[in-house]
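Replying to the earlier thread about multi-chain prediction with a worked example.

Input:
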Amino acid sequence: MATVDIFGKVQNYNYIESAAECDPVAFTKVVESRRSVRVYTDDLIDPEHIKECLRLALLAPNSSNLQTWEFYWVRSAEKKAALVEACLSQPAARTAAELVVAVSRHDLWRERNQLMLDVFSPEKKIKRASAYQYYRKIIPLAYDQGFLQWKGFLKRVVMWLRGFSTPTPRSPKSLSDMRVMGAKTVALACENYMLALRAYGYDSCPMEGFDGARVKKLLELPSGAEITMVISAGKRAENGVYGKRIRWDSSLFLKEI
Ligand SMILES: Cc1cc2nc3c(=O)[nH]c(=O)nc-3n(C[C@H](O)[C@H](O)[C@H](O)COP(=O)(O)O)c2cc1C
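Result:
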């Protein structure tokens, strides 16, 4: 079966990309100093910095590299005011210098899949038959849930039966699986964006406290799109962090088996 071939075999593409030397101390500082900031100063953010942080956001790993995300940097004063209101006028939005809305476009998987097919099409320079077959066969099989999700239902049954005898990928088999997959992809990019802001000396706050219907209307998004979060950014005010970071003992979360 094509899946076994693609996932089971190590591909030899004659491509080498060496791992860059990184600075763990600098990285730790960025991660540890990122806090959710609810009050910002009146300082502005250099637009070039936002652009660079968004560029870094787009380097995040994402499901099948379909890049089913969109980031709306809301720059118009009028739209920004409406967005703040849709974010329930919470201080993290109200006092922010910049607001970015992170949107899952899992509804656009076909279009994004076509872009990947264009990259790997046999006529192109990058000849990768297995990658081409992956986007031609596996992705439609996995992502297409069919009218009223009939394909998803069929997949659920087939995968359940197949799963008795062999390891079997069981998702996405419904629209809610698609939404979860989209949220994972977008959330990873959001973290890239927030860490990048920190590295540039700014702070941020991810927000799910907003009126999704209003934000969607503001951005003129179709019903299939889903807002993952709104991220505010700015310079941290003295009273910007509400308290010491609370994290419980790691033994609650980290398991070695
Ligand atoms: C998906 C998500 C949604 C959040 N929504 C809000 C929000 O609407 N308003 C807010 O003030 N903080 C929000 N937060 C921030 C969390 O409250 C914060 O990350 C948590 O308390 C841990 O604090 P820290 O980020 O400073 O480590 C959200 C965080 C995440 C990941």
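The beta strands are 69-73, 98-104, 203-207, 226-234.

Feel free to reuse this layout for your own posts.
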